[in-house]
Amino acid sequence: MTERVYLHVGAPKSGTTYLQHVLDGNADALAAAGVLLVGERHLDRIHAAMAVRDDQRLAELPESARSAWTRLVRQIRDWKGPAAVLSYELFAVASAEQAARAVADLAAYDVHVVVTARDLGRSVVSAWQERLKFGLTTPLEDWQPKPEEVEGSEWGWRTLDPSGVASRWGATLSPDHVHVVTAPRRSVGPEVLWQRFAEACDLGSVTVDPAVARANESLGLVQAELLRRVNAQLRQEITGSRQRSVWIRDLLAQQVLAPLGSERIGIPPTRLAEATEVGERATARIEEAAYAVHGDLADLRPAPSDARLPGDVSDTELTEAAAACISSLVVAMRDRAAVTSTVPGASVVGVPPVGRRERVRNLAARAAAPYSNARVRQLARRVDELEREVQRARRLHLRVATLQDVVRELLLDPELQDDGVTWEALNRYRREAL
Fold it and tell me: Quick check: 225 and 266 in contact, CB under 8 A?
């Protein structure tokens, strides 16, 4: 039975996507070693975090989303191996009370909390980019992460400061059960991050392949500034987090713009100073709390950057980027039409996409049916089967009713029978029922 549970609760933009890809890609190897990767789908983990955080958006989602945390806790309970790992970065948003309640739900186990963190200056730039993907129009030079005390802030210091996340999630745990994992600088390969994370989760003895494909989700400098300006034109057309995630983040930002450029984005002096101050305070809080540190807390200190800022992008650069964007968008739309639609009755047009275009998804189907998946398709097939059963039962009922008319006619007193009516009843039975 499960003995230990490792809750990887954030922070966002600290290598969490890479770590989750390694976990997902090695789930079988982990299971063979007795370690459960909690959650059958990443979406289950997202919904579980929303449930822990009492996110009001759950009210608009199916019951399966609202019960996701309970379902994951049950999965941990039913696991036959000694350990389980649950990883999703936006658990970091939870308040101390919400975190304590979640940890209490796992009181039967030896619970460890794991917090990953990186250069806080780069974290600020990454957080600004993520906000761009959901319609932000504020320039980086004017943008400021919300303070740690702002509850519900997903892309402010509440989630980016590892000491605050560790404090809230580790409030009911002993310090040696709270692990802070620092992401190494860019000059070091991502495998080092996995090694530090594996050490925190006691996975060092499990043989895994940490070399996983990494999707380029970051925008280059020019492309980020272009997206910011496009957002201003889309504000009235693309509304709501669901539509923004499908059309702005998934299509425009990640599928079209991300592959077009990779120039690093600089850090405005005011943001660099703020990140440096937060980093120093975070380091002091982590050391004072005596949390288990995997890596070097110096990795949190913002490194100076001589990279350009979005405001330095010229109109010529933007024009060229816009032309490339439109071209790529047209190709993406063509290739999207070549993908078999998940909507029943849709047809295939054109030829299958190749290369990176293989990642093209049917965005229209996602927007119209965000919870379409294998389970939904299975239920749809079952509904079709039941409808056919109803139709067969209806035809049988008609046959029985017709037969009753024939029998009633044949049982009449011979003197009351009408040969024409009797033969008509028999013929109608043969014609309609048989």
Answer: no
Task: Note the pTM of the prediction, 2 decimals.
Answer: 0.77
Domain boundaries, the chain: 4-212+267-300, 219-261+308-371, 374-432
pLDDT tens sequence for the chain (434 residues)? 899 999 999 999 999 999 999 999 999 999 999 999 999 999 999 999 999 999 998 988 899 999 999 999 999 999 999 999 999 999 999 999 999 999 999 999 999 999 999 999 999 999 999 999 999 999 999 999 999 999 989 999 999 999 999 999 999 999 999 999 999 987 677 899 999 999 999 999 999 999 887 665 789 999 999 999 999 999 888 888 888 989 999 999 999 999 999 999 999 999 999 999 999 999 999 999 999 999 999 999 998 889 999 999 999 999 999 999 999 989 888 887 776 444 444 444 444 444 444 444 445 445 544 444 555 556 666 776 777 777 777 777 666 666 666 666 566 555 555 555 555 665 665 555 55
Burial of 320 per CB tally in 10 Å (0-12, 13-18, 19+)? middle
Q: Between 42-52 and 96-105, two packed helices, what is the crossing angle to 10 degrees?
A: 120
Residue pair 19/8 in contact (Cβ under 8 Å)? The answer is yes
Its CATH class, for the domain covering 4-212+267-300, is alpha beta
Name which of 259, 253, 244 is nearest 225 in CA terms.
Answer: 253
**How many Å apart are CA 270 and CA 275, to the nearest integer?**
9
Neighbours of 9 (CB within 10 A): 29
